[in-house]
Amino acid sequence: MSSNRPDTRLPLVVLISGSGSNLQAIIDATKYQNLPIDIRAVVSNVADAYGLQRAKQANIKTKIIDHQEFKDRSIFDRTLLSAINQYQAQLIVLAGFMRILGADFVSSFQGKIVNIHPSLLPAYPGLHTHQRALKDKVRFHGATVHFVTAQLDSGPIIIQGSVPVLVDDSIEQLQQRVHKVEHKIYPQAIRWLAENRLSVSDGKVLLDGQQKSEQHIRIED
Ligand code: GRF
């Protein structure tokens, strides 16, 4: 990027706890599809999260803040927040981050935290979503990108991606199919945010001022 042109990329931090395949999808969209963001750092609460390797490979700064080293959640949250503030991020992207952030943390980044959840919310908030979907024999399952509020897995929905549930699906097969759609919808949601195209009205996320069909995609395999 030329030094005398203003940097219009959205500065953000990605929080992870594990494999980081969504992080990889975001990195790839930045590299190959002109996603206009600047990933300032990847922060993990788990020291050996594989996503940290992915970040290093892409020359992105990494930081480990291990929640086990803090005696209560609010001190962990404050430490995390001050680390994030140092990166001057305007968006926090939760990508498989397995800690619940407290109300103070969320309110100090109001409207600027997004999460991806492996279900078609409001169905199946919480854990073990694929097992629960299989047990209920639902025909469709999927993933949701939403703004984070103090209530778990219930903030305004930016985009959802659905996939069919097949009769003989194992948990792993269904999880893989859902992952595929996650890797499409997360970069898409972040692009809309970076392009300033989203607003929230009455708890609904609008794209260019309206609820649009692009906010729900479906993949068949
Ligand atoms: C994804 O299924 C995401 O929906 C959930 O955690 C998982 C993270 O996977 N929040 P990865 O670390 O991005 O591979």
Topology:
Layout: E1 10-16, H1 21-32, E2 37-44, H2 50-57, E3 62-64, H3 73-86, E4 91-94, H4 103-108, E5 113-117, H5 129-135, E6 140-147, E7 157-164, H6 171-194, E8 198-201, E9 204-207, E10 216-218
Parallel strand pairs: 1-2, 1-4, 2-3, 4-5, 7-10
Antiparallel strand pairs: 5-6, 6-7, 8-9
Helix pairs in contact: 1-6
The structure holds 5-O-phosphono-beta-D-ribofuranosylamine.
5-O-phosphono-beta-D-ribofuranosylamine (GRF) is lined by residues 16, 18-22, 51, 95-96, 116-118, 143, 182.
Description:
The chain is α/β, with parallel strands linked by helices. The protein has six helices and ten strands, in the order βαβαβαβαβαββαβββ. An eight-stranded mixed β-sheet has the order 3-2-1-4-5-6-7-10, covered by helices on one side. A two-stranded antiparallel sheet has the order 8-9. β1, α1 and β2 form a beta-alpha-beta unit. α1 packs across α6. The termini are far apart. It binds 5-O-phosphono-beta-D-ribofuranosylamine. The site of 5-O-phosphono-beta-D-ribofuranosylamine has 14 residues, from α1 and β5.
